[in-house]
Design a protein that fits this description.
Blueprint (H helix, E strand, L loop, with lengths): L29 H9 L1 H7 L3 H5 L3 H13 L17 H11 L5 H10 L4 H6 L2 H13 L4 E4 L15 E4 L5 E12 L6 E8 L2 E8 L6 E3 L13 E12 L3 E2 L5 H37 L1 E2 L2 E2 L4 H32 L5 H10 L1 H26 L11
Parallel strand pairs: 1-4
Antiparallel strand pairs: 2-3, 3-7, 4-5, 5-8, 6-7, 9-10
Helix pairs in contact: 1-5, 5-9, 5-10, 6-9, 9-10, 9-12, 10-12
Length: about 375
């Protein structure tokens, strides 16, 4: 489609368009579906190391990132020119789904391939892409995204971190703290948002190369304990001018649109975990017997399993429909301005998928625990 003929839509909820163009998992081509088999990596490499991951063994976690990079799992949405595979969003979301059973590592990996990589893909210069994307694609480097602050959570653009041009005009001096940053203690490079005189701006900040960058202690969390979550501390960090991502004063374009895609990937991660919970529950119900009858043969257990499957099916359908139309509309776009316009059109759909898939995961895991009963402590769902 020629650029002049491209029509931007305001999402699919108000405009259904042609129902024949809706994407479903069954629409994956055979070679695309094979990508899912590479995520046997989760079963073979990640699950045997869950104890080390949950205890924050950073060496093990970094090795897993490297191994995932070796088989291309980090390179899905990166162009071939920058060390990627150019396979698009649908495949990337399929991989995110298959990472669901990886628990905490799946969360860390999703952040790396989502908000840790996509800002460069969408808003980076060719020089920035050439410098950072090959390392992020291979797993040599781990990416992170620093937006939230102690006083700026949902109101993310009310950040207090500042960026001031130095006396020589060669770099920006960053000061502030970013809170609840996933991968904070293992990441090599961060996309950091700070206020300049012209407004919020995105900066590329390297941990080792830029003095003044440090991470606080690991947060003590209720779940997903194995993913690194800590405060990122910036003390007079000098960032070269060429490390501005996007335009000065327009960091909100980077922040909000990247978050839309992050929400969508999280929806798929939740789907993968929900499917794992359903499978574990059904397997257990087939093995466990009461009154000389397998649990799965009791009507109430059958109803629970059916309700879980129906909920997953509905959430999956909405999520794949969303990624299908997003990929269709971003295909062939080159300029950041066009990308921003398209991605912002689907903010509602991405958020709705994230909320629904999170709710379905909560429901399915709760039902899986009920089916396991007193054996729930041995259930292998790791959140």
């Amino acid at each position: 489609m020629k650029q002049a003929e491209r029509q931007f839509r305001s999402g699919f909820l108000p405009d259904h368009g042609s129902m024949a163009n809706l994407f479903t998992p069954e629409d994956f081509a055979d070679d695309e579906a094979l990508i899912a088999k590479t995520t046997s990596f989760v079963e073979k490499k990640v699950l045997p190391r869950m104890e080390a991951i949950e205890s924050h063994d950073y060496a093990v976690i970094r090795q897993l990132f490297h191994e995932a990079g070796e088989i291309g799992l980090s390179a899905i949405e990166i162009a071939e020119a920058f060390g990627g595979l150019s396979l698009g969003k649908k495949i990337a979301c399929l991989v995110a789904e298959k990472m669901g059973p990886a628990g905490s590592f799946g969360v860390s990996f999703n952040i790396h391939t989502g908000v840790g990589i996509l800002p460069y893909v969408y808003f980076g210069t060719d020089e920035q892409k050439q410098k950072y994307l090959p390392k992020l694609a291979s797993g040599e480097w781990i990416g992170a995204y620093a937006l939230t602050e102690p006083g700026a959570g949902s109101d993310a653009l009310n950040a207090k971190t500042t960026a001031v041009l130095n006396d020589t005009g060669t770099g920006w001096v960053l000061n502030g703290e970013k809170q609840w940053i996933t991968n904070a203690r293992i990441a090599d490079v961060f996309v950091v948002f700070a206020k300049t005189e012209k407004g919020m701006t995105a900066f590329i900040v390297e941990k080792k190369a830029f003095p003044g960058v440090s991470a606080g202690a690991e947060e003590k969390k209720m779940g997903i304990k194995g993913s690194s979550t800590a405060t990122l501390i910036l003390e007079d960090v000098v960032v070269p001018r060429e490390n501005i991502l996007g335009e000065i004063g327009k960091g909100h374009h980077v922040a909000l649109n990247i978050l839309n895609m992050a929400r969508l990937k999280l929806a798929f991660l939740n789907l993968g975990t929900a499917k794992q919970a359903l499978q574990l529950a059904v397997n257990y119900a087939k093995e466990r017997r009461q009154f000389q009858t397998a649990l799965i043969d009791f009507t109430m257990i059958q109803e629970k399993a059916a309700d879980m499957a129906v909920a997953i099916y509905g959430a999956e359908s909405a999520a794949y429909r969303t990624v299908g139309v997003v990929e269709q509309d971003v295909h062939g776009l080159c300029s950041a301005g066009e990308l921003v316009k398209v991605l912002s059109n689907y903010a509602l759909e991405c958020a709705a998928s994230k909320v629904r898939c999170s709710e379905v995961l909560d429901h399915v895991v709760d039902e899986a625990v009920q089916i396991h009963g007193a054996a729930a402590a041995s259930c292998k769902i790791i959140l």
